[in-house]
């Protein structure tokens, strides 16, 4: 794909840190009056607002995660607001993720990126590792990319650029494929060829744009990650990267924009709520522990649904665990969430109680969760577990420790929603290719919902998506908090912790399909072995599963 001259823009701190965005939209539950405010177009009912008695504060979402260091490259003409917090999800487009029975969602080599021929691995070793992976993670699945041509072919072509000098590359810019340049730049950095990296980055600066085509926009943020990795290492990366933090109201509005135009968070809320409602059908006292409650929006939907239960609603108690990004966005602690949920529950005549924990997810102990006898327990993990360091980061292995702790509480159900991507333990270049593939789809899915020059969309991508890209490319060790795993690996972790799968019913699938009717028809949902896969065109983006 040749770069679009119309949208070319040097990525500059003054161009990327845009004016504050004002968003008057409010949140809405499905059966409550919807007040549209179409800041962006081309999707269905994407800007719902809440209107109900005695409750009209703005409730936004697309909540981010832990670790709030902000960063932007120094000594750089370009700078973006990025932090180690997480983004809504992971993606890639234009691949066939449903059609090939020979590719598994647990297959790290099944995507066009990770199948790149320029990765310095032995084919024989790959084959043996793949056999071991299949034996550990389960049978092959058809919910994954089957077209191994998109970025693999780009990698082959990128390799042919190795013999060109800086002047030749600059002269060729009008004819260069941005995909090839991105891959070549990552490979040069992987090979520690710093002079070549510098030349390729100079070329990239002239090809990328925050208001361009999806790959141009992704390239703008990938460039920052490459620059950060080249100029710093380890703990110095966060010191090297610094940009003005948006205000609370600005960040909340950016989150809300992505919530409106993309279904990834609604996929998490809808699927988890449908499971919890089903499991708790006859329970009179329900305790929900949410390991990333953020603004609490998910439980407004569930409270409204349970208020209609024949014979009266149950007593609901919610325990929330906070994260720094959501705390900043709401402008205060979880008491704000508790007050809003309490008021909302009161408006629906649902007996309700909120418990505010004061510790981070990685520090949680049983005594922090206020477990009471006689309450049916549900535990919710929405796009949060991938931030927990595992055995590859620390011997404490918070990821598996937390699962064992939750299992000891004997929950009736545990809901898990995660990005379907493999960036946890992959070496740099494989992770780099996976990041390109994943976020190409992310930007493609945003592209259909908002004009390319929409400043609100640019700010939302900058503050809610770019930071994840930079974190995955620039950081290593404990500094890298974006550590996604595929469903097959999560399945292994849950089963080793003593859980067994709770297959999602057709009612859950139907609820998700109904939700997707509000969005572009390139979004897909597929049920596989009791779990749901959300996809964009041909790429699996996120998965939802339940455990007991």
Automatic annotation (TrEMBL):
Similarity section: Belongs to the GRAS family.
UniProt entry tagged with the keyword tRNA processing: no
Stretches with biased composition (Polar residues): 107-119
Region named VHIID: 255-320
Lineage of producing organism: Eukaryota, Viridiplantae, Streptophyta, Embryophyta, Tracheophyta
Leucine repeat II (LRII): region residues: 336-368
Annotated region (Leucine repeat I (LRI)), positions in chain: 176-236
Motif VHIID location, chain numbering: 286-290
The keyword Transcription belongs to this UniProt entry's keyword annotation: yes
Region Disordered, residue ranges: 83-119
Organism: Gossypium laxum
InterPro entries: TF_GRAS
Low complexity: compositionally biased ranges: 83-96
Keywords assigned: Transcription, Transcription regulation
Protein name as annotated: Scarecrow-like protein 13
